Amino acid sequence: MIDRSSGDEIYKNSLSRVKGIDLNYTNAANKAFFNAAEKLNATILPQIMESLK
Predict the structure, then answer these.
(1) Is 2 helix (H, G, I), strand (E, B) or coil?
(2) Domain range for residue 48?
(3) pLDDT, tens digit, 9 for 90 and up, residues 1-53
(4) N or C: which terminus of the chain carries fewer CB neighbours within 10 A?
């Protein structure tokens, strides 16, 4: 995330090694997406909100 007024980087992060395990490829992909959303809500979103203060 970049501050538009100064051009400085405010926040940078990524999700890695998010897995969803299932016998069906579609279900595994959905589980991985759900796990990534949970991780985003639990860790990254609070960090973003803190950097905006």
Answers:
(1) strand
(2) 1-53
(3) 787 889 888 777 878 888 899 999 999 999 999 999 999 999 888 988 887 77
(4) C
C-alpha to C-alpha distance for 49 and 9, rounded to whole angstroms: 14
Task: From residue 36, give the alpha-carbon distance in Å to each of 7, 30, 43, 52.
Answer: 28, 10, 10, 22
Residue 31, CA atoms < 13 Å, CB-side half-sphere: 11
Q: In this structure, what token pair is assigned to residue 38?
A: 């949970």
**Domain count across the chain:** 1
Say if residue 17 is exposed, middle or buried (CB neighbours under 10 Å; 0-12, 13-18, 19+).
exposed
